[in-house]
Amino acid sequence: MNELQIYLGDCKEVLKQIPENSVDLIITSPPYADQRKATYGGISPENYVEWFLPISKQLLRVLKPTGTFILNIKEKVVQGERSTYVLELIIEMRKQGWLWTEEFIWHKKNCYPGKWNNRFRDAWERLLQFNKNRNFNMYQEAVMVPMGDWAQNRLRNLSETDKRRDNSKVGSGFGKNISNWLERKEAYPTNVLHLATECNNKKHSAAFPECLPEWFIRLFTQEGNTVLDPFMGSGTTCIVAQKMGRATIGIEILPEYFEMVQNGFKQQPSVLPFTWDNERKTNYGLKITKIQ
Amino acid sequence: MNELQIYLGDCKEVLKQIPENSVDLIITSPPYADQRKATYGGISPENYVEWFLPISKQLLRVLKPTGTFILNIKEKVVQGERSTYVLELIIEMRKQGWLWTEEFIWHKKNCYPGKWNNRFRDAWERLLQFNKNRNFNMYQEAVMVPMGDWAQNRLRNLSETDKRRDNSKVGSGFGKNISNWLERKEAYPTNVLHLATECNNKKHSAAFPECLPEWFIRLFTQEGNTVLDPFMGSGTTCIVAQKMGRATIGIEILPEYFEMVQNGFKQQPSVLPFTWDNERKTNYGLKITKIQ
DNA sequence: GTTCCGCATGAATCGATAG
DNA sequence: ACTATCGATTCATGCGGAA
Hints:
Chain A is an alpha/beta fold. Helices cover about 30% and strands about 20% of the residues of chain A.
């Protein structure tokens, strides 16, 4: 069984207890500026970089030279403009020694609704990839799947509504035509991920859907490797990492979240807040063949 | 007939001849920074911001207070890292007086093929929206798209809570009144655009597809307004703007591109390098009601 | 077991109003 | 003048109960 450590406390301090060069993948979604005020108090956009840099410094220390840091973030609108703190953060983290290797796009299919005179709905978030070294571990095969199989499975039980939904134009673009997928032999992923946010009626909704950390864990780690989430929240990343046979470290500052995750892990897997479906096929064509 | 002006020359100089506050929409795809000496002479990533700022200063001058500037750009990978010149450009343009209103994502469905050991294919580009003023013209109805098919089932039978305003219980102040949607056939798009890259086998490879400038021209201008592309290239934006009944200004520094566009406009519309297909509207959900 | 359908939910944003 | 709170607007999804 792979080790699980969850800590209650401020990650800036807790991280100092973690040995250097010991983590293979950091994947986290910190509180965004001025958002989730009710739970996390809210860091203002002006202070965000200053607040985050000491944490990213510790993250740089604990990450293995071959490891990867995935940072999920999106700037909010302030007085009609997008804030620039994320841009400044990237620039400052490079000065710390991080390499800004890539920027993935998480396209949120069911984004927050609303209507404004000078703005459309925001349907994407940044997934910033940072590394310590140009030579990092990446297991591309783990997220590649023969497109034929996937398309066949997809099409076998495709209802009429599914077909029509797939041709939906909402999102301001071309409707995708499922039949186009059939012609492809293999699906190579790109740096754009199409995932819906999970909006179930549980009390604590996850920051991102399970398949998001799952995809990056498969891409950047192997079984037995160590995954760290310094802003654990409701624990999605940690739970997925455990189920995927990775050693897991989670840090959370709020007792209620910490206890919720702790209680979840204490119980039997069958009553964990998440149920794992071995046959699950995600929206980006990933087939999970073996879990646990 | 709407005026068409195309200039041969360096846009930094040519722009000085254009009156201030005279342009409704600037949409352009400047040469990306590149190490190689390509067709445009290759601006290195280190010099990119310095090179672009005098141009953006002129663009700020010629744009109407209610106008919009759409900048299509994507940073290159240099020594395993994404360059930061686009981030720096945004920060510096704000110091010039631009408002960074929004960042649209252009998701390129059929992006350039390839495989690398530590990188997936790049399937998106930035479409940065800048404005002079918080109050700019935006004609959202012109780009509305068919609503998702969920609505047909959803609206068949209205429950009691659907008939009145139903406020969310989480205290977000978010509520809904489903009965407002009964007449609704279309929805507003998001800030993620799904467009296939057009692979025309011309010499110019960097051109974006017609529907990209078309979408922004519909969104930010009306007939008779003025559209400017200071890096005209093969002329996609200018041709689309003319077909849509907008006054058009194009600037190009390379004689061969300039002459190609010039010759295209001299000939009959039927032999223009682009053919306008009324059926295309179905591809991305836009209704083209009147062309020319 | 399937499929169908009702329904709550969501890292939002703006402008007006109140302190 | 300046900030803080409030009301209004909006669409796709997954869950769970019903057919």
